[in-house]
């Protein structure tokens, strides 16, 4: 099994530290807003990598952090006139709701920065004792010049980094590239007591502390979006390896950017979409299918046409599953000679090549066409064929890629009464009029789980069946 390692810029054979156990850390969200569709791609693809490792027989401990103390959090809490705890609690709940809608397996641990202050301070103290971190009136900085390997992940050379280009300018620093590991508290900001005075941790040190706390000083896989390579992951390596004297992570995996209609997503361009915006319009399986049809390291273009095309592909898979479930009870009939093992082999070959999900999805769609053809050309097929076909789709498309939801298909009610649907829509409209947003969301989600997608517009609310 080959994995592309950003640290070495090449594919390498995957060799866990302690097989069959695998430790995997993924940089999660800063919980001050709903996560956007680009973050959604990172979270879904890391979920698929974890699922495939489980498929291969590994025991994966999967950790995704939640950043709950940060400049952005403080700024937004002040704008809204609420405490940082109230703000992060709200968006932590929203995050958990949205990843569940995205059909992601829950992480084994969701550590939060505020719960790891002891571990954070311990690392900073080690760095200070080694002369790698220095205190300036309560602000503690990491001395980049003391770490010879700085830049080995991003390929950047310290001499080439321009002053102020991507680093904070601060007269207290010995070097403009030095970064904060502990920030002296300002008036009105949350703070924690420490030997350096009241303050809070820098962003980078939080992930080092949480990763080492839950997975050990050296981990198998560290993953995140391409935008985190520098400075975040570069700084994680510098502070972690300087503190422990050991390699921080053996494999670094990074996910490509997501563009909207071939443009960078930004609020100023009006093309900024949260994951829940899109999940309100399309089922998670269609979104996941769109994601897997591009390699995780490649840029991905997101457009209405592409997601609608993915929806049609998802419909084809779902229609086959419905047919298989309908026919599975036929015990009599002729046996069909079909090589299911070959399909498993093709799927594994694709995924073993640096998690090539686009090729793996192609295997599943080729399988779908072949099975449909067999069913059309044979009037009476033994149930064993249907059982094997269902098992293959469950093992691959459901359990690994998450582009089919068997539980939903097995429990769906295809003949929902239209009058009942319209009554539910009316109840939701009434709830919205009364500003009972929780009830309105519950009605929408309940309909969605039954295969009904609501579409709101200025002229009213309509629905369509998945």
Describe this structure in words.
45% of the residues lie in helices and 15% in strands. The mean pLDDT is 92. It has 3 domains: 2-260, HUPs (Rossmann fold), CATH 3.40.50.620; 282-411, Isoleucyl-tRNA Synthetase, Domain 1 (Orthogonal Bundle); 418-465, no CATH class. The protein has 15 helices and 15 strands. The relative contact order is 0.11. It is α/β, with parallel strands linked by helices and 466 residues long. The strands form 5 sheets. A 4-stranded parallel β-sheet has the order 4-3-9-10, with helices on both faces. The protein has a 4-stranded antiparallel β-sheet with strand order 5-6-7-8. It has a 3-stranded mixed β-sheet with strand order 12-11-13. Strand 3 (21-26), helix 1 and strand 4 (59-64) form a beta-alpha-beta unit.
SSE blueprint and pairings:
Layout: E1 2-5, E2 10-13, E3 21-26, H1 37-55, E4 59-64, H2 71-80, H3 84-101, H4 117-129, E5 133-136, E6 139-142, E7 179-184, E8 199-201, H5 203-215, E9 219-225, H6 229-244, E10 249-255, E11 258-260, E12 263-264, H7 275-279, H8 284-292, E13 300-302, H9 304-327, H10 340-352, H11 357-377, H12 383-398, H13 406-411, H14 418-433, H15 437-449, E14 452-457, E15 460-465
Parallel strand pairs: 3-4, 3-9, 9-10, 11-13
Antiparallel strand pairs: 1-2, 5-6, 6-7, 7-8, 11-12, 14-15
Helix pairs in contact: 2-3, 4-5, 4-6, 5-6, 8-9, 9-11, 9-12, 10-11, 10-12, 14-15
């Amino acid at each position: 099994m080959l994995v592309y390692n950003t640290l070495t810029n090449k594919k390498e054979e995957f060799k866990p530290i302690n097989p069959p156990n695998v430790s995997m850390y993924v940089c999660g969200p800063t919980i001050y807003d709903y996560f956007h569709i680009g973050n959604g791609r990172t979270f879904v693809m890391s979920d698929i990598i974890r699922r495939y490792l489980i498929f291969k027989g590994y025991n994966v401990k999967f950790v995704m952090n939640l950043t709950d103390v940060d400049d952005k959090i403080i700024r937004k809490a002040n704008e809204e006139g609420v405490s940082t705890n109230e703000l992060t609690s709200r968006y932590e709940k929203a995050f958990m709701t949205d990843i569940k809608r995205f059909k992601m397996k829950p992480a084994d641990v969701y550590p939060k920065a505020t719960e790891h202050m002891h571990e954070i301070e311990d690392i900073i103290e080690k760095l200070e004792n080694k002369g790698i971190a220095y205190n300036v009136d309560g602000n503690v900085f990491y001395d980049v010049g003391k770490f010879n390997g700085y830049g080995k992940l991003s390929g950047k050379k310290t001499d080439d980094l321009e002053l102020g280009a991507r680093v904070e300018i601060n007269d207290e620093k010995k070097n403009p590239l030095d970064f904060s590991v502990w920030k002296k508290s300002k008036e009105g900001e949350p703070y924690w007591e420490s030997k350096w005075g009241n303050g809070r941790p820098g962003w980078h040190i939080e992930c080092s502390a949480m990763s080492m706390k839950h997975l050990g000083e050296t981990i198998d896989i560290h993953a995140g979006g391409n935008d985190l390579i520098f400075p975040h992951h570069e700084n994680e390596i510098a502070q972690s390896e300087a503190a422990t004297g050991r390699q921080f992570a053996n494999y670094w995996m990074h996910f490509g950017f997501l563009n909207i209609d071939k443009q960078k997503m930004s609020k100023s361009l009006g093309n900024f979409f949260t994951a829940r915006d899109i999940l309100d319009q399309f089922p998670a399986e269609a979104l996941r299918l769109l994601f897997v049809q591009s390699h995780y390291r490649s840029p991905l273009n997101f457009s209405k046409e592409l997601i609608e095309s993915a929806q049609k592909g998802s419909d084809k898979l779902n229609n086959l599953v419905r047919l298989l479930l309908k026919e599975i009870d036929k015990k009599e009939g002729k046996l069909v000679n079909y090589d299911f093992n070959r399909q498993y082999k093709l799927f594994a070959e694709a995924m073993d090549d640096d998690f090539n999900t686009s090729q793996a999805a192609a295997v599943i769609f080729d399988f779908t066409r072949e099975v449909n053809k067999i069913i059309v050309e044979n009037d009476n097929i033994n149930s064993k064929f249907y059982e094997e076909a269902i098992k293959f789709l469950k093992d691959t498309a459901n359990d690994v890629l998450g582009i089919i939801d068997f539980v939903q298909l097995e429990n769906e009610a295809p003949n929902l009464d239209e009058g009942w649907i319209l009554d539910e829509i009316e109840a939701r409209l009434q709830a919205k009029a009364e500003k009972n947003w929780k009830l309105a969301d519950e009605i929408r989600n309940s309909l969605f789980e039954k295969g009904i997608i609501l579409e709101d517009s200025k002229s009213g609310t309509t629905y369509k069946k998945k």
